[in-house]
Amino acid sequence: MQRDELADFLRRRREAIRPAEVGISDGPRRRTSGLRREEVAMLAGMSVDYVVRLEQSRSSQPSPQLLGALARALRLSDDERDHLFHLAGHRPPPADGPAGQARAGLVRMLDLLGDTPALVLSDLGETLAQNRMSVLLAGDQTRFTGDRRYLAHRWFTEPAIRAGYPPEEQAHRDRQVVADLRAVAGRRSADPVVGGLVDRLRAASPAFRALWAEHEVAVRRADRKALLHPRVGRLLMDCETLVTPDQRQLLLVLTPADAEARERLALLRVLGVEEFPTGASGGGGTAGA
């Protein structure tokens, strides 16, 4: 671990970012054009004290998870993120391996979308990054670990998540989730991560097992879905999907499909963040499905 170099790199990247780039107001009392340490801590989900110790070459070795959070908070490019990992004494995540870090360009697009709910997903349905409106709409979906990281696993093994959809649409969503996973399994046939996930789902869910046997294939594209939010009610949303060239990550953008949904989304924006009941939209069964 190159503590001094790591400290210098983090400090310079923090000072180079304008607050507006990450959705933070400049404010009349700001005396520097860059981010404050407490703002980096907030964006990365870590303590201010740890950010201070990193920048003062006094920290322990940060974990790959913390480095990933810092890379997202500081909007690092792929090359900058790899450099960060090297300075901290870790191997960078492979560009063509399992997607664990949202691409820098996609994260910047999340910032630009502002009040439009959007999130970055891996091809296996892991939420890699969300903007604020996506969190308001669907809860923090980046918090899951283990098999719960995968949308298909949550959808078929946690029945309460279905409360985020009208009952009449749930069977259609079942088929969508399985057909999309089938397409990924075809592209990544030799990947044990994909094969293991499918095997565990077949063992855990008779419904998944039956649908998997039908061998339906459908790549995630544009869609319209009704979401049931615990605070503002039903929202009819159009979902547009932009896929990276290697098909390993995708940007999902949700826009209101009618005037009622626009009004309810505007209300949600005013209400702000609040803990969602388990199994409601915050359970991870809405925006990502």
From TrEMBL:
SMART domains: HTH_XRE. InterPro entries: Cro/C1-type_HTH, Lambda_DNA-bd_dom_sf, MLTR_LBD. The lineage of its organism: Bacteria, Bacillati, Actinomycetota, Actinomycetes, Kitasatosporales. CDD domains: HTH_XRE (cd00093). GO terms for molecular function: DNA binding. It comes from Streptomyces griseoviridis. This is Transcriptional regulator. Residues 34-81 form the HTH cro/C1-type domain.
